[in-house]
Design a protein that fits this description.
The protein is of the alpha+beta class. The chain has helices at about 10-15, 45-55, 70-80, 85-90, 110-120, 145-150, 250-260, and strands at about 35, 40-45, 60-65, 165-175, 185-195, 195-200, 210-220, 225-230, 240-245, 270-275, 285-290, 295-300, 310-315. The strands form three sheets. The chain has a six-stranded antiparallel sheet. It has a four-stranded antiparallel sheet with strand order 6-5-8-9, with no helix packed on it. Strands 2-1-3 form a three-stranded antiparallel sheet.
Length: about 325
């Protein structure tokens, strides 16, 4: 902790969020944005946040103002940009006459098209600032705007997606994982939902790793199963698979939607994913309201491997949080 700072990073970030221009989403003007693109320097709503995530972190690194941990460098970069008005004065400098930005109730197609044009294709940027190759990788916080310009690669969205909420996944620990090196393994977990992928850190030489790491994924309207895979990290060759499991999200999301505002209820069970021969559950997994949040604990037996279990906690985060 840097005792020389006048205020904590979270406090400085919230102070920036309270400025007039930052009280609405930078892209659609929806009120009370609770998300931000840390490398671009704008505050955004959850619906626009989902589109930003689809662009990839090489273009927009999305963080929650209230739920994620921010580094000092990320906070400093946001403050240096100055927020939505400053960023938009560059990213929207050359919006064509008669062009209308999407509003809070824009369709997924309208929202996605605008955000992609604004940040990925740089169509509204001053022509002399547009970057046609992604070769430069400068990362100085004094070049916050230019970092986002230089990072534009060739990735394209796979489709226009409407998101219905966020999923916080806490990867707690693994137990009795498979040996892939001489006597042990260097395991890490990869989670995939649609086109989004997150992964844990690597735990060296440990068959019973403890991660306690939290990761966030946007949940599309037509969501499928959450895919989990465990790998052994190898320095000089391809990483070895250490098992996998598919996670059915229906019980969590259906229960959460039914109760809408869990803060109005006491601690209680509201749903359950049942163990069966067709899934990886070791025992039934209850969906519960706990301290005003919808959560689901589960222990999974890894499939297609000789041994191994993974313990997770899922938490549903609604659109308006």
């Amino acid at each position: 902790m840097d005792l020389g700072r006048p205020a904590s990073g979270r406090r400085r970030l919230k102070d920036l969020l309270l400025q007039k221009d930052n009280r609405v989403c930078s892209d659609c003007n929806a009120p009370d944005p609770k998300w931000a693109s840390a490398n671009i320097g704008v505050f955004i709503c959850l619906k626009c946040c989902g589109v930003h995530r689809s662009l990839g972190t090489h273009i927009s690194k999305v963080l929650s103002v209230t739920l994620d941990e921010w580094s000092d460098d990320e906070v400093d970069a946001m403050i240096e940009v100055g927020g939505n008005a400053s960023a938009n004065s560059i990213y929207e400098a050359y919006i064509p006459e008669g062009y209308t930005k999407p509003g809070p109730d824009a369709t997924p197609d309208e929202r996605s098209k605008f955000i992609r044009s604004k940040y990925e294709l740089q169509e509204f940027l001053k022509p002399s600032l547009r970057i046609v190759s992604g070769k430069s990788n400068q990362s100085s916080s004094s070049n916050s705007f230019m970092d986002s310009f230089r990072s534009t690669g060739s990735q394209r969205m796979e489709g226009m997606v409407e998101f219905i909420g966020m999923l916080k996944i806490k990867v707690i620990q693994g137990t009795n994982l498979a040996i892939r090196d001489i006597k042990s393994s260097d395991p890490y977990v990869v989670l995939n939902l649609g086109s989004q992928t997150v992964q844990t850190t690597v735990v060296r030489s440990n068959l019973n790793p403890v991660w306690n790491e939290e990761h966030m994924l946007s949940v599309p309207e037509h969501y499928g199963q959450l895919k989990l895979k465990v790998y052994d990290y190898d320095t000089f060759s391809a990483d070895d698979i250490m098992g996998e499991a598919d996670i059915d999200l229906q019980s969590l999301i259906t229960s959460a939607m039914a109760f809408r505002d869990p803060s109005m209820f006491g601690n209680m069970q509201i749903g359950k994913w049942l163990k069966s021969d067709d899934n990886a559950l070791i025992e039934d997994s209850a969906v519960e309201i706990s301290d005003g949040k919808v959560k689901q604990m589960m222990t999974l037996k890894l499939q297609n491997v000789e041994s191994g279990e993974i313990e997770l906690e899922l938490e549903w985060i609604p659109l308006d949080q």
